[in-house]
């Protein structure tokens, strides 16, 4: 499918208009051709009636009335209608159906077998079963080849005559004891074909010019129609960059529902973030007082000189845990801070974060010999907050480094609008029975009891919050594979 509205509008509009012009041209060509053929038919019908008015059938023969005045008028009429044309563009004759022989021709005014050869006339494959009628029937045919085919090879004019189509007006007569005759008046339609060819050439030029003009008009129209959408896109990008907190410009009514819905979503998201921050602030403020009291009591115990060693160890443990609680509170408060004033997050490159984490983890696990391979290119990006990305990959890579034997590998590829990242190791892998339980808060695979294993659960929360998905699979190294589906 086409991903651009402008390309869709251009192709659909251009296609519809050009198909319309093409259909209009075809219809115009067909109507023009039909009109000219109808004119020829009317002309042939009139000629056939005029010629039949002078014909007489007597003693088994056709001929013009014997009166000299009638003969002169017949010759004049034949000359007016060009029926004596030697190029055979116009002709009229009577043919005996049973014998397939022409018994009278307007070009000779007598029986042709006494004057000219049979090949002089044009013969056609005419339906011999036409009903006897005074009204002529019409047909459009090419002549049958002459018996002497050398004429076609030797004479270009003859070859042209036999290659063109003729419009025929045909009337059938039945004479008892003499058989069935057909009176045929024909005219070449080569002039109509030439006119149609000229029309097609002119229409092709017109179609080309129309295509250029329509394309220019469609381009101008597309920029005018799509301009508000482009402005809308720029405002959304400004919100992503944190330069704006809502959409302010006026847009066509088709975009107003989207504008209002997006502004409502942004307002709700902003309120949610603020309520989340306020709640954590209140919680942190509430916890600080008892933590401070506990710390003061521990400091007082530490100052006592006669404190037993076991109590000193307990004081140290309590101080460590209090400091850990403060770190957790500070971390969660930092997460709640709105570092980007916009409600939307830009796509962040993954590769720099992975390289930074690799350097850190290699120092943390410097006593463990293993390799971290990063097969992720610079085009791999996902829509996630930078701190969330650091925490997500930090948790997952730390687990992989902790449980691997020799190798940790990170690879990425795109699947539609998602970035799929695989984190593989060659360690002991996930439990075969319900590995998804590790994604629950407080479950640890490296301990037989419940503990503070919130890393996987926090990772799941981060991925779910941005509309992604996390899967626990088996790696190609027969260890653990964590597969992330992150929106781009």
UniProtKB/TrEMBL annotation:
Its main location: membrane. Residues 282-488 form the Histidine kinase domain. Its EC number is 2.7.13.3. Gene3D superfamilies: 1.10.287.130, Histidine kinase-like ATPase, C-terminal domain (3.30.565.10). The keyword Lipid metabolism does not apply. Keywords: ATP-binding, Kinase, Membrane, Nucleotide-binding, Phosphoprotein, Transferase, Transmembrane, Transmembrane helix. It catalyses: ATP + protein L-histidine = ADP + protein N-phospho-L-histidine. It is an enzyme of class 2 (transferase). It is found in: Membrane. The chain crosses the membrane at residues 12-31, 203-227. GO terms for molecular function: ATP binding. This is histidine kinase. It comes from Thiothrix winogradskyi.
């Amino acid at each position: 499918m086409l991903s651009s509205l402008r390309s869709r509008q251009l192709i659909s509009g251009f296609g519809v208009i050009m198909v319309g012009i093409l259909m209009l041209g075809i219809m115009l060509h067909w109507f023009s051709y039909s009109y000219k053929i109808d004119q020829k038919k009317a002309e042939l019908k009139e000629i056939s009636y005029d010629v039949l008015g002078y014909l007489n059938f007597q003693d088994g023969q056709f001929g013009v009335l014997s009166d000299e005045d009638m003969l002169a008028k017949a010759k004049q009429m034949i000359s007016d209608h060009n029926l004596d044309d030697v190029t055979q563009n116009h002709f009229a004759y009577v043919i005996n159906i049973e014998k397939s022989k022409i018994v009278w021709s307007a070009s000779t005014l007598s029986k042709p077998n006494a004057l000219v050869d049979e090949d002089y006339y044009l013969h056609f494959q005419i339906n011999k079963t036409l009903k006897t009628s005074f009204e002529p029937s019409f047909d459009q045919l090419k002549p049958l080849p002459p018996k002497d085919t050398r004429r076609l090879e030797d004479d270009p004019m003859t070859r042209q005559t036999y290659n063109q189509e003729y419009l025929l007006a045909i009337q059938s007569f039945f004479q008892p004891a003499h058989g069935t005759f057909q009176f045929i008046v024909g005219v070449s339609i080569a002039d109509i074909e030439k006119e149609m060819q000229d029309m097609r050439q002119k229409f092709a030029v017109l179609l080309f010019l129309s295509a250029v003009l329509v394309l220019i008009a469609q381009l101008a129209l597309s920029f005018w129609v799509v301009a508000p959408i482009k402005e809308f896109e720029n405002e959304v990008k400004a919100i992503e960059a944190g330069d704006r907190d809502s959409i302010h410009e006026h847009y066509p009514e088709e975009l107003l529902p989207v504008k209002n819905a997006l502004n409502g979503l942004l307002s709700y998201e902003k309120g949610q973030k603020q309520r989340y921050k306020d709640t954590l602030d209140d919680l942190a403020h509430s916890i600080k007082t008892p933590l401070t009291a506990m710390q003061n009591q521990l400091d007082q115990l530490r100052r006592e000189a006669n404190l037993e060693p076991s109590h000193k160890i307990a004081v140290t443990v309590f101080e460590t845990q209090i400091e850990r609680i403060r770190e957790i509170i500070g971390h969660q408060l930092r997460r709640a801070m709105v570092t980007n004033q916009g409600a939307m997050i830009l796509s962040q490159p993954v590769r720099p974060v992975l390289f930074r984490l690799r350097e850190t983890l290699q120092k943390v696990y410097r006593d463990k010999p293993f390799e971290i391979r990063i097969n992720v290119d610079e085009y791999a990006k996902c829509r996630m907050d930078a701190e969330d990305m650091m925490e997500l990959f930090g948790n997952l890579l730390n687990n992989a480094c902790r449980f691997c034997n020799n190798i940790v590998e990170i690879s990425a590829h795109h699947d539609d609008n998602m970035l799929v990242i695989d984190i593989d190791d060659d360690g002991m892998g996930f439990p075969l029975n319900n590995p998804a339980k590790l994604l629950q808060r407080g479950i640890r695979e490296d301990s037989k009891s419940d503990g503070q294993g919130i890393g996987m659960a926090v990772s799941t929360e981060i991925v779910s919050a941005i509309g992604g998905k996390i899967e626990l699979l088996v790696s190609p190294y027969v260890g653990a594979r964590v597969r992330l589906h992150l929106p781009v």
